[in-house]
Structures are given as structure tokens and as C-alpha cells.
Amino acid sequence: VWLCSSRRQCPPSFRPVEGPQLRLVAQAATVLTALRGAAAFLTAAAAMTVRRRGPGLAAVLVATAAVAGGGSAPAAGAGDRFDAFAQPGWRADNGAAAAPDEDIVVVLALRQRNLEFLEEHARRVSDPDDPIYGQHFTREEVNSMAGPSDEAVDVVRGFLEATPGSFRFSKGRDLVRFVCGVACVEKVFGTRLLAQRGATKPGDTKYRAATPVRLPDRVAAVLDGVSLNAPLFMPPRPKQVKLPGFEFPASGRVAPRLDPRLIAGDQFIGLRFVAYCKDGSANTKSLEEGVCAHAGPRIVSFEVVVLQAPMNQKVVILPATAEVIGDRVGNCGPDGGCREFNASVGGVQNFASTTARIRAKFSDGSVSNFSDAAEVHPVWPQAYTTPASLSRFYGIPLNKPIRHPRN
After folding, report:
1. What are phi and psi of 176, to 5 degrees?
2. How far is CA 348 from CA 258, 307, 345, in A?
3. Of 289, 331, 332, 342, which is the most buried if we count CB atoms within 10 A?
4. At 379, is the pLDDT very low, low, confident or very high (cuts 50, 70, 90)?
5. What is the rounded CA–CA span in Å between residue 287 and residue 289?
6. Are 255 and 275 in contact, with CB atoms under 8 Å apart?
7. What range(s) does the Peptidase S53 activation domain occupy (predicted)?
């Protein structure tokens, strides 16, 4: 059908459709579109009916769909319905069945929770203007919030325990790796596996599910998906090396002690340190309580000297206030509790020779000696990175933001 509404758009041999005729044609097109949509729906309904109700009603639906779609009902066995499940570049190997004893890997994805909340939290902790900027969740916290419910895990576990196969949950319990023979998989998941022909890669399986997976309603209700096309040999998850935190001395000095792992980025360095009081003990008071308020004069500020070359030094005064310095529980050994502080110093060039020294100024006007520059070993990541990357690289729990001079 050729529709045109103006003589400029129409070929000379066609009359333009105008006025009531245009409305009539538009109505006819709407009806035709509806019929085609109904045909597609009825065809899908027929496919589901074959699985659930048997072929009788399905034949009626297919015939009705053929009339609505202006075509004919497909003949039985026409086309290769298995190709829809094949990997691109593969084709069915003449309907060859899979070897019944060969192991197949099935991955079940359990339904996760609180995804909208976690997405919003990820946006907020990445916004420097947000009050919770930098307060990232740990992996364990994310798993506890996003992971499936205990009831869902119990349903899947009970379902798989009744099979001869083996299974293992992921750390977050949202994925299950199930291994069983071909005959077992076909029975458990109500499908048929056929061999596919094509180029394979190490770890690929040449078998594909030829029919839709069928699961009990209680199991399907707690799953987001099932993959029968997973590699036979899934690579083991690399172990995450958790670096032990630096243990600060509990006493025996007055100069503040810097963590030897200097955090460095684009034009800034991040420092972590513990303050010591005049009696040589590590400070146990928070910034709000007053640094060293329990042992004589309080510390009112810290003086940091950034060393890069004899002619390139930077001196920064850090007031001992929560607006400038971060504060958290430190590690001063099993018998010594202390407070660990963190601060960022900006305007620092990216030199691998960078190190730092620090000293404390007390409320009585006296100052401690500077810390030893050799106590710090700078480590340089790429030119610029994010708080999340710093946390991952250095094992820093970002319960409070690392203050960047740009923010």
C-alpha cells in the first residue's frame, strides 16, 4: 500500500489520499497492525500451550494466528527450531544427541535484592557534594544487601540436593554452579541437549539446550535465569590478597608516626599517621575529645614537610580538627589502642622520590621532633585515581572520605 498526503510526495501515477479517505486508510492501517500484533501473540501463546496444555488447543491458536497474519499455519516439523538456541557461527550437528555420561555445567542466577538502593548509594558516594561521599560499602556489606534471601537459597539448595549432581554457591550466594551428566541435566531441567558443530575454544562446551528449560514453580520464582551454555572449565576466582594493616608502635616516641605506605595521586599525597603525647604514649583520644588531652598538653596542629628534592619542599600546617583531618580507630598492637588520622596534601608534583616528615605542636607552645623520612616508602599509582581505587590498591576502609584538594 502506498500512502501519500500531498502531490509533491506522490508519483504522477498515484492520486493523493485526502480528507475522509485519509482517515479511512489510517483506520485500516491501525486494524491491520492490531491483527498482526494479535498474530504474533497467538503464535507465542501456541508455543506455550504446546508445553503446558498439549497440542490440541495449540493447533487452534496457530490456525487463528495464520488467519490474522495473512499467512498459513506452519507445517509440523518445518524449520529447525533448535537453531534458535545455537551459538552464533554454530549449527546443529544433524540433531546428534549429547553423550549421556559427559558432564555439563549449569549456572543458576538467583534473584538479587536492593539493587535500586545500591545503585543510588553508588551515585551518592561518588558525588563530592553529597554528605556520604566516599563512604563505600565493603564487599561483605554489598553481598549481604544484594544477595538473595535465605528462603530463596534454601529452595535452590533443596532442589539441587535431590539430584545426583554437585553444586557450589558463589561467595555472594547469587550464583550456583551445578555439574552433572547430560542425562541428569536433561531430566533435572526438563530440556534436551544437542551437539553443535563449530569452532571451539578451550573450556567451551559444544552442547546447547534445544528446548526451553522447565523448572518447578517454586524454583523458577527465585531465579533470574539459567545458563546451560557455561564453559565446562570455569576459571577459579583469583584470591584477593588482603594486606595486613600497619601496626603503629604503642609508645616510645613523641614524633608522630606515618604509615610507610604513602598514598599518591595526581598532584596530591594522602597521609595516615598516629600522634604521640609528651609522655611517649600513643594518643587514644578522638579529634573532638582533644588529641592527647588525657596525657598533658593537647596537640593543636601538625606540621608536614613534603620532601622531593633539596630545592623542592612543601610545608603544610594541619590543624587538629575534624574539618581538616580524618579520624578512625588505629592499630597499635594487641595491648595498645590508639587513633589513626588521615589527611591529604595538595599541590604536590608526581615525583617517585617523594617522601614526608611530620611533627606535632602542643598547646603549651612546644613542638615534637620530626619523624624520620626513611619511615615512608612512597607508592605511585597511575596519574589519577578514585577513592574506590585507592581503597582497593591500599586496603584502606573508606568509612570516611579521603579529602582531595579538588573536592
Report:
1. -130, 130
2. 18, 10, 7
3. 332
4. low
5. 5
6. no
7. 88-232
Q: CATH topology for 257-394?
A: Immunoglobulin-like (2.60.40)
Sequence-distant (≥ 6) Cβ neighbours of residue 212 within 8 angstroms: 51, 191
Q: What is the CATH number of domain 97-112+147-227?
A: 3.30.70
**What is the average pLDDT across 15-32?**
46
Alpha-carbon distance of 67 to 73, in angstroms, equals 8
List phi, psi (to 5°) of 94.
55, 35
All 3 cell numbers of residue 97? Answer: 544427541
Dihedral Cα 152, 158, 159, 163, nearest 10 deg: 150
* Backbone CA torsion sign across 282, 286, 287, 292: negative
d(CA 265, CA 128): 17
Q: What is the pLDDT of residues 118-168, one digit of tens each?
A: 889 988 888 888 888 888 888 888 888 888 999 999 999 999 999 999 999
Confidence tier at 301 by pLDDT (50, 70, 90) = very high
Answer whether 195's CB lies under 8 Å from 206's CB: yes
* pLDDT value of position 46: 39
pLDDT at 330: 87
3-state helix, strand, coil in the chain (%, to 5): 25, 25, 50
**How far is it, in rounded angstroms, from Cα 41 to Cα 36?**
9
DSSP string, 203-232: T---EEE-S-----HHHHTTEEEEES---S
Q: Is 46 helix (H, G, I), strand (E, B) or coil?
A: helix
- For residue 382, pLDDT beyond 90: no
Report d(CA 66, CA 69) in Å as an integer: 5
The pTM of this model reads: 0.40
Whole-angstrom Cα distance, residue 153 to residue 158?
8
Residue 70 has pLDDT above 50, yes or no: no
175 by DSSP, 3-state: which?
strand
Cell of 7: 502531490
User: Cα-flanking dihedrals φ and ψ of residue 181, to 5°?
Assistant: -70, 165
Greater model confidence, 59 or 333: 333
85 against 160, higher pLDDT: 160
Q: Where are the domains of the chain?
A: 1-78, 97-112+147-227, 257-394
3-class SS letters over 237-279: CCCCCCCCCCCCCCECCCCCEECCEEEEECCEEEEEEECECCC
Crossing angle of helices 115-125 and 139-146, in 10° steps, is: 150
AA letter at 180:
C
Phi and psi at 305, nearest 5°, equal -115, 120
